[in-house]
Specification:
The complex is a heterodimer. By secondary structure, chain A is mostly helical. Helix content of chain A is about 70%, strand content about 5%. Chain A is built from 19 helices and 4 strands. The radius of gyration of chain A is 22 Å and the shape is globular. The two termini of chain A are about 20 Å apart. In chain B, helix 5 packs antiparallel against helix 6 and helix 6 packs across helix 9. In chain B, a hairpin with a 4-residue loop joins strand 1 and strand 2. Chain B is about 75% helix and about 5% strand. By secondary structure, chain B is mainly alpha-helical. Chain B has a domain of about 220 residues. Chain B is built from 20 helices and 2 strands. Classes of the chains: A mainly alpha, B mainly alpha.
Chain lengths: ~525, ~500
């Protein structure tokens, strides 16, 4: 066993334990050091991942089965560990997400009196679980990663111990999460029963694609896969498995909400791509839904298409009614999960590549939006949309950053969100599923309503906000005592925001190389 | 291909202006005004130089001059390709001129948040120029969408009482239209099998697209462009946006933004899908005629001077549709001519309505009368513009309408008769508004108001001069339009 293949995971695990130990020996006022230690750990893991990408992944573009280039990778422990383009790219994404969330969290944790050490340690363990999820082809290890992330997340949601809403968030997240885990475990058991292997590649030869529910082929494995769709539906917050998300997002500490909206969600998408991608693609090329009745992969394809449509539509329509910005962003992230599901419904290499690219773009723009929320929160602005009135004047830089992120979320060029949607559109049109693209279009138009609700407050609404709401620094207006007492400035949040905004533009301008990477990653699933 | 990147500079000089303006301290309003004027003058000067060089510049591939092309996303065949021909170049000059005029007009008309206003106006110019000069669908789309954002804020922040409603309506209408257009573009890309997003190359290869699919794509593109034109029944955003927008923005909206829609027909829909265009010709003619007659009748019913001009725009855009539907060389040249003449005349009208409003603080036609007496210079120029608007021979508007009708005559006498009916109504409301606003007894409360300032005369002069010049010597413009119109006729199968 070549242990260097799991070097990034080892570093993150070590960092998590290190942060817990460090926390024990630090005086309370020095505990923000644990944040810097987490940053160092995540950065080291990124370097290790890059090293793996260069040293262990073969980028020489051998042609895959369907002629698309595939970057060959390594597998170890009988497929438990997969180091390929897909896992390396997603691990880098997860580490970057973790890095940004730590930056967002340091000042917030101090100001809101979170248990700092636990916060960062749990975050690192959650990232570790995500990395295991993306980096394995084995159902057992995927499940272990999933639980590592989930259990850390439940605790993270409840970190605001004095806040009832935070407790509610944790409990709801825990109960639905446990149900989802049970579904996933049951599904995995059936898949194992149907294929005789816990390796996801076994699904390809198991006759799942020709089978019908309750008929010939491999109905047991197929039933297992349908259960997995439901279980992962909870993790992705796909409608109708989404009810926990708004409450969990609203109640959790805001940096944790930022993390939930991109991290575990992206990891769940990674797993879904791993398990379902090849099966769906096989069904697509075999003319799945065509052969009388909904055979095998046809069932799954239709399932994902329905999930995609329902998720984006319900997410967007419900977001329109929200007055709390965290709830609004929660529903917005449900809608974006719906857009991402389009890639699975399309089930072509381009569709999967589009999903990978969209995950990158979505992480950047959503973290950017949350960074603004946290930045303002640290300065005493509330979380209601109406609290943002006149922000364009009070805090022009933050407002502009928020505008950029929202335009990107709507899908206006030249921001990354446009290219993400463009890629998904292209995949859908290419696969003769233009109707899905049309549904996305209608949804994008609906989404303008709520994003612009905030933009309207920031730029068009009069400064109706109460005096204590002033952001301060830019205008030299009086800063509320509460905001100055513990946090002077929040340069770390500013740094995170800057990184996110730069990424929102850079991902757009670097579409060519990134799309190539995404294609390589998706090709090696 | 060789040498100086005229087009890149034309597109991005205003964007540089936007960034430069953001560096200025907010309070230095006078410097901000001058900087905005200078940055908007750069594209104007460049386009004038290009005009001089036009005859001496050899046309490259697809008849494009001053073309530039760099690979951008090679794996999808997306490139940064700019180029201009007889269809786009007059629109580019119009954009440069009217944006400059709008900036100078904004010097005195905009009294709050000047820095943000001019920065957004210049960003808007980059978007508009990019739309007219892009030869790649994705680049085209990027600029098309970039236009939305500054326009939203320009209406939403500096607009009239119902500005938020108007701005959001504008944004949502055009966003839906343009994203449907994007799906059409993607379908073109995959079905043409060229592996490139180059507009001209796809137009060449589009013959391989199945007829039925071609019609669907035509409809998708049509929706995107029709919202911008605007074609009835997608026009309802326009009166709201026009009335609420501040004067300089109304000018740009009427003069340039609407032309993005008609330009789309000439650059994309018709050359690429001539078969579908012919299939839908009667429907498009019908929509055009509805635009002409409905727009004119609605204009006549307006009590608000600005709304009247807005509906008059809808009426005139109907002529462009009619010319496209007729598809003869004369009609197409006339439609292209209408793009420019309407841009000049409607821009002028909005400037003057704004000038009247600034002084009297009303646009209510019933409250205005005897403007000839109170504001003789402004009233005279307004009368001139209204005559141009009704199509007085010798002025630019007449040439366009004449060419469209003369070109439509061999295709359908009925269409011409209906359009002529519309023209009667157009003449009617223009004369009626002159009678009610300019003539009559001077209102006492408006006595002693200052007449046109030197700055205003400076903004009116070039536009008035062009309206006369194009009316007297249409050849100035026709030399650009004839070639593309002829080529389009050939693509349409020599109707």
């Amino acid at each position: 066993m070549d242990w260097s293949l799991v070097l990034p995971e080892l570093i993150v695990a070590g960092a998590g334990i290190g942060v817990l130990l460090l926390d024990l020996f630090l005086a309370p006022e020095k505990r923000r050091l644990t944040g810097y230690a987490s940053l160092a750990g995540l950065a080291a893991a990124m370097v290790a991942s890059l090293w793996l990408a260069v040293a262990k992944v073969d980028w020489s573009l051998a042609a895959g089965a369907d002629g698309s280039p595939v970057a060959a990778g390594f597998t170890a422990l009988g497929g438990m560990i997969a180091v390929d383009a897909f896992s390396v790219l997603l691990k880098l994404l997860f580490l970057a997400i973790g890095l940004v969330v730590v930056l967002l969290g340091v000042d917030f944790a101090e100001k809101r009196k979170l248990p700092v050490g636990e916060f960062f340690a749990l975050l690192l363990f959650a990232v570790l679980g995500m990395m295991l999820m993306a980096g394995s082809r084995d159902l057992i290890l995927i499940y272990l990663g999933l639980e590592t992330t989930a259990i850390s997340s439940y605790a993270l949601a409840g970190l605001l111990k004095d806040d009832l809403k935070s407790g509610e968030a944790a409990l709801k997240y825990f109960l639905t999460g446990a149900l989802a885990s049970a579904l996933i475990l049951f599904g995995m058991a059936l898949v194992f029963g149907g294929t005789g292997s816990t390796n996801v590649t076994a699904l390809l030869g198991a006759g799942v694609t020709t089978g019908q529910l309750g008929g010939a082929g491999n109905p047991i494995a197929l039933t297992g896969l349908v259960l997995l769709v439901a279980g992962f539906g909870f993790k992705l917050a796909a409608v109708p498995f989404h009810f926990w998300a708004p409450d969990a997002y609203e109640g959790a500490p805001t940096p944790v909400t930022a993390f939930f909206s991109v991290g575990p969600k992206a990891a769940a998408f990674a797993v879904v791509l791993r398990i379902f991608g090849p099966v769906l693609a096989l069904g697509g090329s075999a003319g799945g839904a065509g052969a009388g009745g909904l055979a095998g992969a046809g069932v799954l394809g239709v399932l994902f298409a329905v999930l995609a449509v329902v998720t984006m539509t319900v997410g967007n329509l419900t977001a329109l009614a929200q007055k709390n910005i965290k709830r609004m962003l929660a529903y917005s992230s449900i809608a974006h999960a719906g857009y991402l599901l389009v890639g699975l419904a399309v089930a072509t290499p381009r569709g999967f590549a589009a999903m990978v690219y969209y995950l990158l773009a979505y992480a950047a723009m959503n973290l950017g939006a949350f960074a603004v929320v946290i930045w303002l929160n640290n300065r005493g602005t509330g979380d209601e949309v109406s609290d943002y009135a006149g922000l364009g004047r009070r805090a022009p830089v933050a407002a502009l950053a928020m505008l950029v992120c929202f335009l990107s979320l709507i899908g206006i060029p030249p921001m990354a969100g446009f290219f993400g949607k463009f890629y998904l559109f292209a995949a859908a049109v290419e696969a003769n599923m233009a109707w899905l693209a049309v549904v996305m279009v209608i949804n994008s138009a609906i989404s303008v309503g709520y994003y612009y609700g905030v933009v309207r407050q920031m730029y068009l609404a009069g400064d109706a906000a109460p005096a204590e709401d002033h952001g301060g620094a830019e205008t030299g207006a009086p800063v509320p005592a509460e905001a100055t007492s513990t946090v002077k400035g929040t340069p770390l949040v500013g740094l995170a925001l800057g990184l996110a905004v730069v990424a929102v533009f850079a991902l757009g301008f670097l579409f060519e190389p990134l799309a190539r990477l995404a294609r390589l990653a998706a090709g090696g699933l | 291909m060789s040498g100086f990147p005229f087009l890149t500079l034309v597109v991005f000089a205003p964007l540089l202006g936007t960034l430069a303006l953001l560096m200025f301290p907010k309070a230095r309003v006078e410097s901000i005004r001058w900087a905005a004027a200078i940055f908007s003058a750069v594209p104007l000067v460049l386009t004038l130089v290009m005009w001089v060089l036009w005859g001496r510049t050899p046309a490259g591939a697809f008849g494009m001059k001053f073309a530039e092309s760099f690979s951008w996303i090679p794996s999808l065949g997306i490139s940064y390709s700019l180029g201009t021909d007889g269809i786009s170049f007059p629109l580019v000059v119009l954009t440069a001129l009217m944006t400059f005029v709008a900036v100078v007009a904004g010097w005195k008309m905009i009294a709050t948040k000047e820095r943000a206003f001019f920065a957004l106006l210049l960003l808007l110019e980059t978007g508009m120029m990019g739309v007219f000069l892009s030869l790649d669908y994705i680049l085209f789309y990027v600029f098309w969408e970039i236009v939305l954002v500054p326009m939203y804020f320009l209406i939403g922040i500096w607009g009239g009482p119902r500005r938020e409603y108007a701005a959001l309506k504008f944004f949502i209408y055009t966003l839906v239209g343009s994203v449907i257009m994007l799906i059409g573009i993607l379908a073109l890309y995959f079905l043409s099998g060229t592996g490139t997003f180059n507009i001209m190359e796809i137009a060449q290869a589009a013959g391989s697209i199945p007829v039925a699919a071609g019609r669907w794509i035509f409809v998708a593109l049509f929706l995107g462009f029709a919202v911008k034109v605007p074609v009835f029944p997608f026009h309802t955003w326009l009166p709201d946006a026009h009335v609420e927008a501040p004067t300089p923005i109304s000018v740009v909206l009427a003069a340039v933004l609407l032309k993005m829609g008609t330009y789309g027909f000439f650059r994309v829909s018709y050359p690429t899908l001539p078969g579908a265009a012919k299939y839908f010709a009667v429907a498009i003619a019908a929509l055009g005629l509805i635009n002409i007659i409905y727009g004119a009748l609605t204009a006549m019913a307006q009590k608000d001077l600005k709304k009247l001009v807005a509906y008059s725009s809808i009426s005139h855009m109907g002529f462009v549709l009619l010319g496209l539907a007729a598809g003869t060389q004369l009609a197409l040249s006339g439609a292209l001519f209408m793009n420019i003449s309407h841009g000049l005349i409607s821009g002028m009208l909005f400037l003057l309505v704004g000038a009247v409003y600034d002084r009297t603080h009303t646009r209510d036609i019933a409250k205005l009368s005897g403007v000839y007496v109170t504001l003789p210079v402004i009233a005279t120029i307004l009368a001139f513009s209204l005559f141009a608007n009704l199509g007085l021979p010798g002025l630019a508007g007449f040439v366009a309408e004449f060419f469209v009708l003369a070109g439509t005559f061999p295709v359908s006498v009925l269409w011409v008769a209906l359009a002529a009916l519309g023209m009667l109504v157009v003449a009617g409301f223009n004369l009626w508004v002159m009678q009610r606003v300019l003539m009559g007894e001077a209102k006492k409360e408006y006595a002693g108001l200052p007449d046109a300032t030197r700055l205003e005369i400076f903004t009116y002069a070039p536009v008035v001069a062009l309206i006369i010049a194009l009316g007297v010597a249409p050849g100035l413009l026709m030399r650009f339009l004839n070639g593309p119109a002829l080529e389009l006729v050939q693509r349409l199968g020599g109707m």
